[in-house]
Design a protein that fits this description.
The chain has helices spanning 17-26, 41-51, 65-69, 94-110, 123-128, 136-148, 174-180, 183-199, 226-240, 257-260, 271-281, 317-329; strands at 6-9, 35-39, 57-59, 73-77, 116-117, 155-159, 164-167, 207-211, 244-249, 265-268, 287-291, 297-300. By secondary structure, it is α/β, with parallel strands linked by helices.
Amino acid sequence: MSSAPLALTMGDPAGIGLEIALHAWRDGASLAAPFFLIADPQAVERVDRALGWATPLEATTPEAAAAVFGHALPIVALNARADVAPGRPDPAAAPAILESIARAVDYARSGAARAVVTNPIAKKTLYEAGFAHPGHTEYLGELTSQAWGGPAQPVMMIWSPLLAVVPVTIHVSLAEAARALSRELIETTARIVARDLRDRFRIERPRIAVAGLNPHAGEGGAMGREEIEIIAPAIAALRAEGLDIFGPLPADTMFHAKARERYDVALTMYHDQGLIPAKTLAFDDGVNVTLGLPFVRTSPDHGTAFDIAGKGLANPSSLIAATKLAARLAK
C-alpha cells in the first residue's frame, strides 16, 4: 500500500476544493506523494477553464494514477454529476460529494490508495439533501464500519507543527457538549489519541494535556463541578493505565508558546475550545486528521470558501500540508 497514490475527494464542487486540487497538482514539486482526484471530470474541466489554467487532465483508474501524475492530473470519474456553479452551493451535488468520499474509503480498503485526503464539504448543503450525519468525521466512521466490519470511533485532531488539538465532543452545540461529556468519552478518546500518536506519528510516549470545561478549570468547583466529577477522575484512570496525561488545565492559559512545550497534543472538551487556538496559530497549514480509523485520513483545515470559489484566490497550502502528512503517516 505504501507505493499507492493518495485518494483525494472532490469536496463540494461549488467551493474551492477543485481549485486547490488543480493548484496542488500544478505545484507538484511541493507534494510528498502523487494523488488522484475522485470527481466529475466535467466539473474539473469547468473550474480549470474558468481559471484560464489549461491544466492537463486525464481520466484514469487508481491503479494507473501514479504513472499519469507526472504529466497530467489523474481523475477517477464519479458516476454522479456535479453540475453546479462556483460559489453557488446546491443540494443537487450531494450524491456526487458523498460518492467521492465513499469511493475513497473503498480504495483505501482495497489498497488502491495509501491514504485518503478529503476536500472541504458544506454540511448545510448536505443536510438539505437529507444527509443524516453531523459532519465528515462521523460519516467516515459509518463508512469504515460498513467496509471493515465492526464499530469505528473516529476522533478528530487538528494538527500543525505548532499545535495539535483533539476536541472530545465535536459537531454539537455548546449546551449539548456539556451534557455529552463523560468519563468514558474522555478515556476512550485519550486512548485512541495515545495509540495513533504512538503508531502513526511515531511519538514513543505521547504527552497529553487536558483542558477543563469551565473558566479557570472550574476554580475548585466554584464555576462548575465537571472538572471534579468527570474530567479529573478520567485523567486519574488513564494515568493508572500508564498514559502520560495531565490536567484539567484552564483553557485560557494552556495554548501560549511556553505552555505548548509541555505536551504533544491537547484534549479539549468542545469544538471551539481547541479549534480557535489551532486555527489562529496555523490557519494556512493546519491539517484535520481523523484518528481511530484503519486507514489514514487527512483534510485541509478550512471550509469551502464559497465567497472566493472560482476566482483564483484560494490558497492550496493546507491541502498540500494534508497530502504531506497523509503520505508521512501512511508509511
